Each structure stands twice: as C-alpha cells, then as structure tokens.
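Exercise 3.2. Students should predict the tertiary structure of the chain below and write it as structure tokens, then compare their answer with the key that follows.

Predict this chain's 3D structure.
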Amino acid sequence: MAFDTAISGINAATADLNVISNNIANASTVGFKSSRAEFADVYATSLLGAGSNAIGKGVSLVGVTQEFGQGNVSFTNNSLDLAINGGGFFQLSNQGALEYTRAGAFQVDREGFIISNQGARLQGFQVTPTGDISGQIGDIQIDTSLIDPNPTGLVDLTSNLDSREIQPTVPFGGPFDAFASPPTAPDPSAYNATTSTTIYDGLGNPHVLSLYFVKTATANEWEVHSLIDGVTTSGPDTLTFQSNGQFDPASLPIEVNITGWTPLNDAGAPTGAAAQDLVVNLSDTTQFGTPFAVSSVSQDGFGAGQLRGLEIDESGVAFARYTNGESRALGQIALANFNNQNGLQPIGDTNWVETFASGPANVSEPGTSGLGVIQSAALEESNVEITAQLVELIVAQRNFQANAQVIQSEDAITQTVINLR
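Answer key:
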C-alpha cells in the first residue's frame, strides 16, 4: 500500500515539476500566463463510504490552473505591437476558427491584414464607407491604396480689415487673366489687403485662391474680388459692416459664391477636372482699427495621398495617416472576455480557445464592459515571477525526494518480512 501511495506522490511531484519548468521556460514569452498544479488527496471508499479510520491512498492531480494576472508592459518602436492594460483578450481568426491571445506582436501581411506571428488575423469592428465605426466584426485590413482627392467646396476665412484704410486712388479694374498675352494682374495700388489659400479640384490638383479687399468711398463698406490662379472668377462682392465693426447678424452668412469654375493647369489649359462651385465664408470677418490680419483660413478639399503611417489609440481605433495630411479610421480592435477565464483551453502559441466551461466570449470595445485599454508600441511580458518559481522548484524537488524515501523505507520493511524464518 505504501508503494502505491509513494508512487502517487512521485507522480504528483513530477507533474508539479513539469508545470514549474514550463513556467520558467516561458518567462520571456510575450503574453504568457503562468500556471500552477493543484492536487487533492485520495481515499478508498466502499458502498457505504469510508470508515472513520480510513487511511489515504495518496494524492492526485486535479487541475492545472492558469493565473491571468497582468504582466509588465514593455515599450517598443513598432506601432503594431499592442498590449492590453487591463482585462480581455485579442480575438483572432485562424482560417475562420476563433482564438484568443494576450500576445500582441502583430504585423501586416502582403494583403494588408493585421496578423499574428502564426498568420491568424486580428479581429475588430469594421468601418462604414463614411468612416464611422460599425458593430460588425471582421478582419482588420490596412488599405495601402491612394486616398481619393476631395474637391474644395467651402473655404472659411477669419480676418480683420483695418477700419482706418481709405479708398485707393487707382481703380481695381479687371477682369484679370494670368494666362493672357500679356498677362494681367491687379495693381498693388488698387487694393488695401489681400490673402491667398490653396484649394483643390476634383483630380486633386492644387490651385491658389486669392482674395483682394478694396475700401470704397462709403463708410464701413468694402469690396472683395476673387481670383483663382490669377484668373478673375467672381466679384466684386460688397461687405457692409455696422458701426461696431461687425456684420449685422440678420445679414449672416456673408459668403462669396464662385460658380462654374473650370480648373486650369500651369499652361492655362483645363486639367480635365469637372467644373465646380465654391463658397468662401467671410462671416467671421471684422473691421476694427487694427492692421489687416488673417486669424485662420481652412478649406475642406485635399489632394490624393499615400499611406504614411498607422496609429492605434487606447480605444483600439486604428488610424491611417496619409501624405496629404488626412487620416482615416480603418477599424477598431475588439477585445473579448469570459465569465470563467480558467475554463479556456490553451492550444499553444500563447493562444486559447473557448470551451463550455469558459462560456461564450463577451466582445466589446476596449475600455468598456470591464475590458482594458490598448497600449500601442508596447508588449505585455510574461507574468512569471522567476524567484517564486525557483522556490517552488525546490519544494517540488523535496517532495519528490521524500516520496522516493518512502519507497526506500517500504522496501526495507518488506525485505525484513521476507527474511523472517
């Protein structure tokens, strides 16, 4: 009997050593979670149960439990290295089969999908054609194609016209054409102030919109002339201020409307882009006794752009940055959690799959529903504590030796019985 009991102890100590050695071997594995062996005593029972003086039959391994505590976060220079600061797992699709991991060392494959080292695709919430995050989950893919240009439709200008200015002595004249022979342009003596900004046609070609402000003989009244690439497009439009240097609220918005503009190239020929309409919003323009100044100017157009970089914020939204200054959301990384994490089945490669014991995955956005947030350019290290593992290694070794000593002692006793005459 003692032989069987000691053998069960040796088997238990061996299992403990195996678990500890696996922990130590993965001390540097990204996203690895340490495990511990759990044991229970064994008693022989009859139909009526064990007697009050029953002697145990040894020990058995009842489970190997993983400890899902947070590992240290180390920072890298790769924006696709992702760490979860808090609870949750990354969701991966391995040819349609869902797997879960805490190891966030991702990369991009030749088709633009974000994948793990084993080729499983990272899952996330998809974006709509308008760039909004939807509730549909799928593979996150980086679009490396050129971003389509957007023609300018609105220009917003905030400026101040100097109320101390007087009417120029030279008439503004026009219309002007920089491509005429000889070219014609406004005389600097014919206007009080001017400003320019870049706009874009439907093919993404840049053009220069210039506004010329001319004080009239009427108090608080100005004219504004607009030229694109040195060619007169509209005007003059009249700006009338109140005595406080601002527009009458009832007259807002104050806009310069350019209709049917045909984009031209550097030679004065059409670029091939469609004719377009523009609105220049001057509602925030003032007329105070300070020099002319432009506080801000913005427009809603942009040219074509190539992918320049990728950024992922703490909410898991992946933004693509383009050379034209634009950025677009490509998707939002989804995180999953389980009612019973210890019910997950490890399958290697620092991945788990759900089981009946774990329950179904609860998938949501990072930072919600008890899930952690995403740290880009960082990796979660193994949560193995080497010092503790080495101490447990000594204990397991002592247990093995002690059970081996039991076998040796039982052998000596048995030999003594056999030698009785």
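Discussion points: The CA atoms of residues 169 and 190 lie 7 Å apart. Residues 73-145+307-380 form one domain.
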